[in-house]
């Protein structure tokens, strides 16, 4: 195993897309940011220097961070932000994980432009559980705003209204030639006839789930969220923000140019969505290399923006590579509702949400508020009272028909608070994530920091243990770090709480985090202690 050192300078960089230039925040002036490539077992030491005018933190999405919660990164959860002019060194080891993960800013909406791939190759002297690919290519899906995304979210927070949507989707930072003014801003991936390549898809978009397809080529899924899967062949992928999927593609078509295209899966029912499409070009060695010239690329079939069936079919295809030893018996049976809601407008004020409200979101009716004086982990470690409470409810405070629309608002006014749920170190947790349709029915990509979990089952309607327990896959469920809770439906996940620390769980649509769709688990070992957690680094920022 090796130790790899990196310097990441967070800075403002002028970037032009859609014919408009503005300063975006980048790492080392690159957009997308630098790709990190390591082997399972290696240690990363990343010195982050903040030369931007915003607070920033970086998060290593999907990295287990065993005993190194201090390096996880969500601001005010495991660390205070790195102030402008400040720096912090993230140090952690990849333990047992292989595949594609990524890194991104975890402060306000900075991750709109601050992100990159984190590729973990098999550990020394071992290989992939599939045919060695000829080439490997990260394919990072993102979103582009003509405006500064921080201004977009600040305005929405001030008014209580829903923020603007982005101006384009992107592949490796480029919108692609179906957008205005983007002929040159198209990612081209050169390939050779007969080769089998590994494409590492990452959904780094801020607020949009995406379908992806490649014209005339099948994809064989071999990994998701850095866990190997039973190979399955499909023509469409669906990735929620935060999710990754590795696919093998054999270049078995006539030498030509083929579009890789991605378009929104906008599951909010009844809401028509701007379904513009981002493209990259898979280009055979055919002497047709100038974008915008030669034969026009072939376009793939993509599902409609509201094709919930296509999204479910994809997630149903995912299975662990081998039979797994599911953690059990269950010590903690949790039932969390996830969904949007509305806050009343403060008296005498005018608010921008529907019917003079403020947009809100919650888990079990608690709308998460970040502290600002300490991170939760620092407050716990130093026993500073008053920063958070440990009364996050194990089950919803009110029972009702969660998937019904137009439920009386009096039933479901979220409570804004910083509540955590305590888990005993080593306990086995089973969590039902139940979508609610109070304000809108939507698929929520729920991510847990510091853990991978097994997805035992997914379904539509209200979860009903009496009949749905029978649907659990206890043989080869997929292991992920982000689960798309189906629109008007539920998902059941299971994990063992074997990593001490404070671990954020949230919807990976950033607009929903802004509205409070988050909570944190506090995993203690010993008695009220974090005994096996490493000491905080000396340069850990203070608030
Ligand atoms: Cu990509 Cu809090 O996560």
Structural Rg: 22 Å
Query: Tally the helices: what do you get?
Result: 5
Number of domains: 3
Helix and strand content put the structural class at mainly beta
Main pleated-sheet profile: 6 strands, mixed
Average of the residue pLDDT scores: 94
Strand order of the largest sheet: 10-9-12-17-14-15
Query: What is the total tally of β strands?
Result: 32
β-strand percent reads: 35-45%
Q: Which percent bin holds the helix content? A: under 10%
CATH top level label of the largest domain: Mainly Beta
Examine the secondary-structure arrangement and name the CATH architecture of the largest domain: Sandwich
Bound small molecules, which ones?
CU-O-CU linkage
- Report the CATH topology name of the largest domain: Immunoglobulin-like
- CATH H-tier superfamily of the largest domain: Cupredoxins -  blue copper proteins
Subcellular location: Secreted, Extracellular space, Apoplast
Enzyme class: oxidoreductase
EC number: 1.10.3.2
Organism: Ensete ventricosum
Protein architecture, described:
The chain has 543 residues and is mainly beta. It has three domains: 1-127, Immunoglobulin-like; 130-319, Immunoglobulin-like, CATH 2.60.40; 332-524, Cupredoxins -  blue copper proteins (Immunoglobulin-like), CATH 2.60.40.420. 6% of the residues lie in helices and 39% in strands. It contains five helices and 32 strands. Strand 22 (366-368), helix 3 (376-381) and strand 23 form a beta-alpha-beta unit. The longest helix is centred in the N-terminal third of the chain and has 11 residues, at 149-159. The model has no long low-confidence stretch (mean pLDDT 94). Residues 59, 61, 74, 104, 106, 242, 447, 449, 504, 506, 508 line the site of CU-O-CU linkage (C2O). This is Laccase. One of its GO terms (biological process) is lignin catabolic process. Belongs to the multicopper oxidase family. It catalyses: 4 hydroquinone + O2 = 4 benzosemiquinone + 2 H2O.
């Amino acid at each position: 195993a090796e130790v790899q050192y990196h310097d990441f300078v967070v800075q403002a960089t002028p970037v032009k897309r859609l014919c408009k230039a503005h300063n975006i925040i980048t790492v080392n002036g690159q957009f997308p940011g630098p790709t990190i490539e390591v082997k399972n077992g290696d240690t990363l030491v990343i010195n982050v220097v903040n030369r931007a005018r915003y607070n920033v933190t970086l998060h290593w999405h999907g990295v287990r961070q065993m005993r190194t919660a201090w390096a996880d990164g969500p601001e005010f959860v495991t660390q205070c932000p790195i102030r402008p002019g400040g720096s912090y060194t993230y140090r952690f080891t990849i333990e047992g994980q292989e595949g594609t993960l990524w890194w991104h800013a975890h402060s306000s909406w900075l991750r709109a432009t601050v992100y990159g791939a984190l590729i973990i190759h098999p550990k020394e002297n071992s290989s992939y559980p599939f045919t060695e690919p000829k080439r490997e290519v990260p394919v990072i899906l993102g979103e582009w705003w003509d405006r500064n995304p921080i201004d977009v979210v600040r305005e929405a927070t001030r008014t209580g209204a829903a923020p603007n949507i982005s101006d384009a989707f992107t592949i490796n930072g480029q919108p692609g030639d179906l957008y205005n003014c983007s002929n040159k801003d198209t990612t081209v991936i050169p390939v050779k006839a007969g080769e089998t390549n590994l494409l590492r898809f990452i959904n780094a978009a801020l607020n949009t789930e995406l379908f992806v397809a490649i014209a005339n080529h099948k994809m064989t899924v071999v990994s998701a969220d850095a866990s190997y899967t039973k190979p399955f062949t499909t023509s469409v992928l669906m990735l929620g923000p935060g999710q990754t999927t590795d696919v093998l593609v054999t270049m078995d078509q006539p030498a030509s140019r083929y579009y890789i295209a991605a378009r929104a899966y906008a599951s909010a029912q009844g809401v028509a969505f701007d379904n513009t499409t981002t493209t990259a070009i898979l280009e055979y060695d055919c002497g047709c290399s100038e974008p915008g010239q030669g034969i026009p690329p072939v376009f793939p079939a993509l599902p409609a923006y509201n094709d919930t069936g296509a999204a479910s079919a994809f997630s149903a295809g995912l299975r662990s590579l081998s039979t797994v030893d599911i953690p059990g018996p269950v010590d903690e049976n949790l039932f969390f509702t996830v969904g949007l809601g509305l806050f009343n407008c403060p008296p005498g004020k005018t608010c921008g949400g529907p019917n003079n409200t403020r947009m809100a979101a919650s888990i079990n009716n608690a709308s998460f508020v970040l502290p600002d004086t300490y991170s939760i982990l620092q407050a716990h470690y130093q026993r500073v009272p008053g920063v958070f409470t440990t009364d996050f409810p194990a089950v919803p405070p009110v029972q009702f028909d969660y998937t019904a629309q137009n439920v009386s608002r009096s039933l479901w006014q979220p409570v804004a608070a910083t509540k955590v749920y305590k888990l005993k170190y080593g306990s086995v947790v089973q969590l039902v994530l139940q979508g609610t349709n109070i304000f809108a029915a939507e698929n929520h990509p729920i991510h847990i920091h510091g853990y991978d979990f097994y997805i035992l089952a997914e379904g539509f309607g209200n979860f009903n243990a009496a009949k749905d327990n029978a649907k659990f896959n206890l043989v080869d469920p997929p292991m992920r770090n982000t689960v798309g809770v189906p629109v008007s439906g539920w998902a059941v996940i299971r994990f063992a709480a074997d990593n001490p620390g404070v671990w954020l769980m949230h919807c990976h649509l950033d607009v929903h985090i802004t509205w409070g769709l988050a909570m944190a688990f506090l995993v203690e070992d010993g008695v009220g202690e974090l005994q096996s957690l490493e000491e905080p680094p000396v340069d850990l920022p203070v608030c």
